[in-house]
């Protein structure tokens, strides 16, 4: 069934001018952009967004990195959106990402890995709400 996922183009990919290419890959894979917003997170907002990772050793670095520059936040819609989007972006670690995936093409490291993708329908809904109100989903 048609459902939604949430993504962010991360600061390194935005800064390097890859937003257009990444959105092109997303649309070519059959996803519809339902909401989009360019913004810069504060370190606190990044900390809130990634609070599930609070106890992980990379948490502080991640918050600094995710608040280091603009990000492109989007809600995407497609059949089987969460799983299909994770396939399209590839493994978290770009060294393990398959050919043809967004991370294989654009990720620089396990942290600066170009894009975020929700890992479940439940998190997709929560993450979408973090950035967008119902009236901003078109
Ligand atoms: P993301 O899919 O957005 O979810 C958590 C993020 O933490 C991940 O992408 C990376 O940007 C970052 N990260 C940094 N180090 C690690 C690590 N060792 N394992 C997983 N994620 C990491």
Topology of this protein?
Layout (H helix, E strand, L loop, with lengths): L1 E8 L1 H5 L3 H10 L3 E8 L3 H7 L9 H8 L4 E9 L1 H9 L12 H5 L8 E3 L3 H11 L7
Antiparallel strand pairs: 1-3, 1-4, 2-3
The protein binds adenosine-3',5'-cyclic-monophosphate (CMP).
Could you tell me which ligands this complex binds, including any ions or cofactors?
A: adenosine-3',5'-cyclic-monophosphate
CATH class categorisation: Alpha Beta
Please, what is the oligomeric state?
single chain
Strand order of the largest sheet: 2-3-1-4
Order of helices and strands: EHHEHHEHHEH
Runs in which pLDDT lies below 50 for 5 or more consecutive residues are: none
Q: Globular, elongated, flat, extended or rod-shaped: what is the shape? A: globular
CATH architectural arrangement: 2-Layer Sandwich
Chain-averaged pLDDT: 97
Q: How large is the share of residues in beta strands?
A: 15-25%
Describe what you observe in this structure.
- By secondary structure, the chain is α+β, with helices and mostly antiparallel strands.
- It has a single domain (2-136), classed as Alpha-Beta Plaits, CATH 3.30.70.
- Helices cover 40% and strands 20% of the residues.
- The chain is built from 7 helices and 4 strands.
- The chain has helices at 11-15, 19-28, 43-49, 59-66, 81-89, 102-106, 121-131, and strands at residues 2-9, 32-39, 71-79, 115-117.
- A 4-stranded antiparallel β-sheet has the order 2-3-1-4, with helices on both faces.
- The chain binds adenosine-3',5'-cyclic-monophosphate.
- The site of adenosine-3',5'-cyclic-monophosphate has 8 residues, from loops.
- Adenosine-3',5'-cyclic-monophosphate binds at residues 53, 58, 62, 92, 110-111, 113, 116.
């Amino acid at each position: 069934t048609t459902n939604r996922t949430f993504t962010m183009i991360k600061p390194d990919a935005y800064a390097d001018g890859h937003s257009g290419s990444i959105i092109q890959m997303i649309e070519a894979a059959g996803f519809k952009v339902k909401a989009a917003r360019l913004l810069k997170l504060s370190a606190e907002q990044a900390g809130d967004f990634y609070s599930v990772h609070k106890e992980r050793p990379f948490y502080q670095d991640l918050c600094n990195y995710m608040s280091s520059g603009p990000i492109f936040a989007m809600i995407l819609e497609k059949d089987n959106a969460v799983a299909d989007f994770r396939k399209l972006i590839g493994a978290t670690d770009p060294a393990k990402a398959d050919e043809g995936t967004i991370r294989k093409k654009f990720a620089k490291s396990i942290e600066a890995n170009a894009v975020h993708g929700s890992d479940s329908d439940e998190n997709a809904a929560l993450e979408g709400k973090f950035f967008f109100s119902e009236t901003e989903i078109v």
